[in-house]
Design a protein that fits this description.
7 strands, single chain, 3-stranded antiparallel sheet, alpha+beta
Length: 160
């Protein structure tokens, strides 16, 4: 490779760097959300699918905010569902109330607002499941290797 070819490749690399970094951030965000969904599936929770879906990019209950304007790249991911935080951090029920739904054949309660049956929730405290915290910790453990893999793939794509 002569110097002109090298210069062209470096210019191409420089022009494509912001988009490449954004793609890497998005892939890291998707991977974190996958870890959250995996951790939710390990826990014995009442599942309506709403919480799982709120951790998917494009869902209206999802938090997916990219900021590349402050001399740094930031991708904020999470859920806009109020109870996502309660389930992660814990909460206390102070008054009894009725929850409509039914028990399916495998012992899980299915929330159904139109159901005639259900159960009454009594006052008590719930310890947080820490599903997001656990997923984030697991994600951090493999993030360096994943980041190196994504960077390598982007560099190879950009200099061709």
């Amino acid at each position: 490779m002569d110097f002109r070819e090298f210069q062209k490749r470096m210019e191409k690399l420089h022009r494509g760097a912001p988009q490449a970094l954004e793609r890497i951030m998005y892939q890291l965000g998707e991977e974190l959300l996958n870890h959250v969904i995996e951790e939710l599936s390990r826990q014995d929770l009442i599942d309506t699918g709403t919480l799982w879906n709120s951790f998917s990019q494009g869902d209206p209950n999802n938090v997916w905010e990219f900021d590349g304007d402050r001399d740094t790249l930031t991708l904020e991911v999470g859920s806009n569902l109020t109870y996502a935080e309660y389930l992660n951090d814990g909460y206390t029920i102070s008054k009894p109330h009725f929850v409509p739904g039914y028990w399916n054949g495998v012992g899980k309660f299915v929330y159904d607002p139109s159901a005639k049956g259900g159960f009454t929730v009594k006052p008590r405290s719930f310890i947080g499941r820490k599903y997001f915290d656990i997923a984030l910790q697991n994600f951090r453990g493999g993030m360096k290797a994943l980041l190196e893999k994504l960077l390598q793939a982007e560099l190879e794509r950009m200099v061709k």
